[in-house]
Amino acid sequence: MKSLNVSLLGATGSIGGSTLDIIERFPQKFKLVAACAKQNINKLAEIANKYRVPLLGISEASLAKELAAKLDYKAEVLGGEEGILACATAGAADLVVGALVGIAGLKSTLAAICADKKLALANKESLVAGGHLVEKTLKEHPKAAIIPVDSEHSAIFQCLKSGAHNEIKRLLLTASGGPFRGLKGADLARVTPEMALKHPNWNMGAKVTIDSATMMNKALEVIEAYWLFKVPPEQISVLIQPKSIVHSMVEFVDGQVVAQMGPPDMRLPISYALFYPERAPLNTTKEPPLLDFAHLAPVEFFGLDMAPFPSVDLAKEALKMGHSAPIALNGADEVAVPAFLRGEIPFTAIYDVVEKVLLAHKVTEPADYEEVLAIDGESRAKAKELIARH
Ligand code: MG
Fold first, then answer.
1. SS3 label, residue 120
2. What's the CA-to-centroid distance between 216 and ligand 1, angstroms?
3. pLDDT at 104 exceeding the cut of 80
């Protein structure tokens, strides 16, 4: 087994934790050579001390000294953007895991590609806000590659091994439908943050959990799928599969459909990305659980009811508008979700805010990360203005 040096961006988050779970199972295979986080120095120090990580980055620059003081060995600790980018481009790393949350992840994604890294990408915003830039940068750095970590995209990536790109008829992204499937109008408007934070199948961070309740998560995934697989939006469909057993499917031109199944456990798509192009025998241990087909709840599919959950339509609209439009969609959602969690707007107003920001957006072609960030900032400001008026 060839060993692999890993740099983990976003080590203290949910995806970071699942990645460390895989790394821990295969100490001969993986060596953690760099890790960074936004601000959780206690957790990052704990990880660093356990794995003896030689390079550490912390977004919140003022915390770098405190982080260094918590280490019981000698490491290079860099604060601010410099620290994150040093981890993204670490010379020792064979594989970079991009698990930062939010638009800041785009800069490290571009940096990792420029450094010719193999990138296991979980940061949605990289593709949602920076799809054009990522595509252009990948063309300039053919040695770099992106392997999707998101469960749906990992599923499609695996299904696509069954046919050529020109044989794809449709990508079928599955969604659990979130906890509020079937709710409408006034009932949906009355949903509280506590209700929305309880996801039936997946255990994730707060922003993703709310995004999955509004279906905005699926909307962002449609945009992500567009950039990863270069399939036009009208050939990307969303289907509800409440138990999250079928993670996505590809329909080919001959009418045959290939699906990928597995227990709803993020460690599976993460391990696929870490080991790619190989597969590791994760299931020889007790966890993660195997699918027990004989006792499985029925695997049912439903169409997506767009009327109460318009996120996916908004995403396709943003893709049609092109260039900077998905940045506006994403920026508005990033402001609307915390506003909902703080009780400032009702659940259904998340859609109103996103739609209004998107429709008011003037499409431009951002040339670099800074321009993406500026458009993101404008969209957030617009969203805040709408929320204040609410
Ligand atoms: Mg997903």
1. strand
2. 11
3. yes
Contact indicator for 333, 216 with CB cutoff of 8 Å: yes
Please tell me the distance from the alpha carbon of residue 350 to that of residue 340, in angstroms, as a whole number: 7
DSSP string, 189-217: HT--HHHHT--SS----HHHHHHHHHTHH
| Span 132-173, pLDDT tens digits | 999 999 999 999 999 999 999 999 999 999 999 999 999 999
CATH of domain 4-148: 3.40.50.720
Q: How many Å lie between the centroid of ligand 1 and the Cα of residue 372?
A: 23
How far is the centre of ligand 1, averaged over its atoms, from the C-alpha of 124 (Å)? 9
CA of 147 from ligand 1 middle (Å) equals 14
Q: What is the pTM of this model?
A: 0.94
For 38-144, where are the E strands, in sequence order?
55-58, 76-79, 95-98, 118-121
Which residue did the predictor score with more confidence, 283 or 166? 166
Q: What is the pLDDT of residue 390?
A: 82
Least confident of 42-46, 190-194, 278-282: 278-282
* Start-end of CATH 3.40.50.720 domains in the chain: 4-148
Query: How many whole angstroms from 221 Cα to the centroid of ligand 1?
Result: 7
Neighbours of 320 (CB within 10 A): 11
* Spatial CA neighbour of 84 closest among 65, 66, 59: 59
Q: How far is the CA of 152 from the centre of ligand 1 (A)?
A: 5
pLDDT of residue 131: 97
CATH architecture of 165-259+301-389: Orthogonal Bundle (1.10)
User: What is the Å distance from ligand 1's center to 71 Cα?
Assistant: 34
CA 203 / ligand 1 centre spacing (Å): 11
CATH 1.10.1740.10 residue ranges of the chain are 165-259+301-389
